[in-house]
From TrEMBL:
Name assigned to this protein: SDR family NAD(P)-dependent oxidoreductase
Source organism of this protein record: Gluconacetobacter sacchari
Signal sequence interval, chain numbering: none
Family: Belongs to the short-chain dehydrogenases/reductases (SDR) family.
Oxidoreductase in keyword set: yes
InterPro entries, alphabetized: NAD(P)-bd_dom_sf, SDR_DHRS6-like, SDR_fam
Length: 139
């Protein structure tokens, strides 16, 4: 499979695994869009690999729906968005369930919103890849 001229969306591609996915797709001559709610970070990341950047806040379904209305369909979507503010994994007995549930807004429900509004429009040979290392995250 080649990614040449395919539209590839990487949500959360400003750094880490997401940026690696975006860079690899760009090296294969894909038309890459890096999207996140951190406009400055993704603009800088996109510029370094010749991609474009776009705002999306996966915590808000209306924003996700508007993003796909404005940007159309993609051939491949990689969801690597994460939100670790204030959450530090540790012993299950010490888990703050309120903080843990807040992380699910991005990591789980955000991925569901992208599936509903974006992945549902993928072509038959398209893909939607979700990464989630919520409990494996090590600070």
């Amino acid at each position: 499979m080649t990614l040449q001229d395919k539209r590839v969306l990487v949500i959360g591609g400003g750094s880490g695994i997401g940026f690696g996915v975006a860079r690899s797709a760009a090296e294969e001559d894909a038309k890459v869009v890096i999207a996140s709610r951190d406009a400055k970070k993704i603009a800088e990341a996109a510029q370094t690999i010749g991609a474009s950047s776009a705002f999306i806040d996966v915590r808000d379904e209306n924003t996700v729906a508007r993003f796909f209305q404005d940007n159309g369909a993609f051939d491949h979507i990689a969801f690597t968005a994460g939100d670790w503010d204030g959450f530090a994994p540790g012993a299950l007995a010490n888990l703050d369930l309120v903080k843990a549930a807040a992380r699910m807004t991005t990591r789980f429900w955000g991925a569901v919103a992208v599936a509903k509004h974006g992945a549902a429009k993928l072509p038959p040979d398209g893909s939607y890849t979700i990464t989630n290392g919520m409990l494996a995250h090590d600070r």
